[in-house]
Amino acid sequence: MTYQELDSLYRLPFFELIQRSRAVHEKNWPAAEVQLCTLLSIKTGGCSEDCSYCAQSARYNTDVVPERLMEKCQIMERAKAARESGSTRFCMGAAWRGVREGTQRFEQVLDIIRDVSELGMEVCVTLGEVGPGEAQKLKEAGVTAYNHNLDTSREHYPNIVTTHTYDDRLNTIRNVQDAGMSVCCGGILGLGESTEDRLKMLEVISSFNPQPESVPINSLMPMPGTPMAEEQGVDVFDVVRIIALARIAIPKAKVRLSAGRTNLSEEAQTLCFFAGANSIFYGDKLLTAKNPAVEKDLALIDKLGMTPQQPNRDQAAPAPDEAKPLEPAATQEAASC
User: Fold this and answer.
1) Which 3 state secondary structure label does DSSP give 125?
2) Are 87 and 37 in contact (CB under 8 A)?
């Protein structure tokens, strides 16, 4: 969708916008299902990047203690526990700038992915920047989807991160799509951005060809020690409006209510589901931030008459629209770690 189209929708009266997004949701997602995802930080802290919202950056004095890549046996235990608790997608995140073919740590990650993929869950990873070769190996190892968020608009991005560029992120997404993987790509609300920045971010994400398979909508959880520590929270109605717009602009994607969900009441989460969210991160922690307890999540899902979505390991990546240019275009060679 164009910025002008998104802006027109955003300016609608709240209930009219929600009615429109609900109609799109019911057309594309008729079953009352929610995808339950578990996110595990398999390598925490010590990251060389300067993302100003992230407690894992080595540049900031935070409470996060750097840890090496977890042992495979520990990761498998967590993955099996996630499956037993009802998760259908297991997401693994590593605090790196990126990964590179031929390195020991990349081979270790590929070995972990192969074993996790045998558990029957969908497998998502977020490892930073990847080139064409790394993307192909991840696909062959069993990755279902690769997460790489845009965070905000191109214009606002240099205010948030300076150690890599917006085009670096677009190049990684293009490499992932060219390898045949699905893309999980969203953003973060509350980074000091304007409404215009939020709409421009959605404009770019909705222009991907193919569109993302899932779109996480995060609300900043200010982390002590980071430059964003004093940022104010995001108004819940702003969150709902962006979820509604994401549902309309990217109708076949799972829209994930992600970081910041701990700050939302059950009523607010319900409004997000009604507006088009149909995926959540589920479990005890979301990388380095707390997440609602499993039992509380299951109780709300049951209260709403929703059911967990079943995993689909055989799902194909969304097909490109031949009538559209392949965006995002790889305008420069992706950087490696």
Assistant:
1) strand
2) yes
Residue 1 burial (CB count, 10 A): 18
Q: Which residues are paired to 182 by β-bridges? A: 145
Give me the helices (H) in 53-147, please.
72-84, 104-117, 132-141
Q: Would you call 167 exposed, middle or buried from its count of C-beta atoms within 10 A (0-12, 13-18, 19+)?
A: middle
Task: Please measure the distance between the N-terminal and C-terminal CA atoms of the chain and give it in whole angstroms.
Answer: 33
- The amino acid occupying position 281 is F
d(CA 241, CA 218): 13
d(CA 91, CA 99): 17
Residue 188 one-letter amino acid = I
Record the tokens describing residue 36, joined without a space: 């339950």
Tally of helices (H runs) and strands (E runs) in the chain: 10, 12
Classify each residue of 288-323 as buried b or exposed e, where b means 16 or more C-beta atoms within 10 Å of its C-beta: beebbebeebeebbeeeeeebbebeeeeebbebeee
**Catalytic positions:** 47, 51, 54, 91, 124, 184, 256
* For the chain, domain boundaries: 3-306
Burial class of residue 74, CB neighbours in 10 A (0-12, 13-18, 19+): exposed
299 contacts: CB under 8 Å, gap ≥ 6: none
What CATH number has the domain spanning 3-306? 3.20.20.70
pLDDT digits (tens), the chain, 337 positions: 999 999 999 999 999 999 999 999 999 998 899 998 888 888 877 688 888 888 877 777 777 777 788 899 999 988 998 888 888 899 998 878 788 888 988 999 999 999 999 998 899 999 989 999 999 999 999 999 999 999 999 999 999 999 989 999 999 999 999 999 999 999 999 999 999 999 999 999 999 988 999 999 999 888 888 887 888 888 999 999 999 999 999 999 999 998 888 888 999 999 999 999 999 987 655 444 454 577 788 888 899 999 988 876 666 566 666 656 555 544 333 333 3
- Output the pTM of the full model: 0.87
